[in-house]
Known about the structure:
Strand content: 15-25%
Number of domains: 2
Number of helices: 7
Bound molecules: heme C
Amino acid sequence: MKTTMISSAIFLLYGVAGGISSCEVGNMAPIANTATLPAKLSDYGIFPDGTVDQLAPGFHKYDLATQLFTDYAEKRRLFHLPLGAQFSFDPSGNPVFPDSSVLVKTFFYYKDKRNPAAGKQLIETRLLVKLEGQWNVGTYKWNDTQTDALLLESGTDETVSWVNERGVRKTLRYHIPSREECTSCHRSGRSITPIGPKARNLNIPLAGQPDHPNQLLHFRQAGLVTLQPGDLLTPLPDWQDLSVPLDQRARAYLDVNCAHCHSSVGFAESTRLYLGYELPLSSTRIHTRRDHILHRIQSANSNIRMPRLGTTVPDSAGVALIKAYIQSL
Ligand code: HEC
Ligand code: HEC
């Protein structure tokens, strides 16, 4: 397919930068990219008409069971596989993608959340690109005319303003993360890893389709994924779904917002506070650290507030949920 050819050409052009190896000093040292990414987002040919509403063939939209809070930004997620290739899951349900796969996450705000047709302000498109067995991170900041986005070499802040679902105008300084910040969250031991597309997180009914087929089965039918029976066993509940029991909602929230750092292979490994949904409650230390957790998620002080990266304001709905859960323990 055309796009696949375009993107493989890019990978040939930019290739894998030799000599840059990840830092060997200490387990929590930043992890470096092993490849150089193209300077412009348009070089990937993801969005043929320059808007994010149309996708080139070979790029597939996916949704997650439960959402990560990032200062109220809207997000759109895509994956790209080389032509004819498939992804799969390891026995823990973590995704295994072939080389030349690209994961794409675009952050934007609706100008008026009550009326999406009034348009969007595109902020950044983050990529994970797998080359020679290693994932590479990069984020592309959309230009003022919203026609293309350029690769950022460092983190930056951007003022955004939108009208929320209650008709209230909101403004904040949105933070676009640096590569070091990317790899703090996207690390598993000493390598970069995707976070969202775990089997349990993709195992949901597809929105916007008449008979709501299961997303994983839909991808299998399209020849994009190979599944093992275990991949379809445990869906992660949506923390915003009020019909789900409180403890499951709270643990799904902690899984998506915290567990990428708070795991035995994550950035907050040293805290021994592990917040993955798959862990039995007895091994998470949520019980014994409940006061710390409440203190950290509510704090107005950004040096104390959790999550450590990715937000500049506390998530009031999430705080309310975790508070209710912790008080129920
Ligand atoms: C605060 C932690 C955090 C930081 C910082 C962060 N990410 Fe992520 N990222 C996540 C989580 C959690 C998900 C999965 C949930 C989702 O998609 O909303 C994710 C999802 C993604 C995805 C979709 C595929 C996947 O892994 O799920 C891409 C691509 C991505 N991030 C790239 C980046 C890049 C590039 C940067 C740096 C510019 C970055 N991220 C910084 C936490 C983070
Ligand atoms: C980007 C990585 C990252 C994310 C995401 C993150 N944390 Fe942390 N967390 C850390 C690090 C690093 C420490 C240790 C340094 C410190 O105490 O500030 C820590 C410390 C903590 C502590 C103190 C440990 C203790 O036992 O007293 C608590 C509680 C905590 N985090 C809760 C959370 C919760 C709840 C979330 C999700 C809402 C979260 N964290 C998300 C990195 C992260």
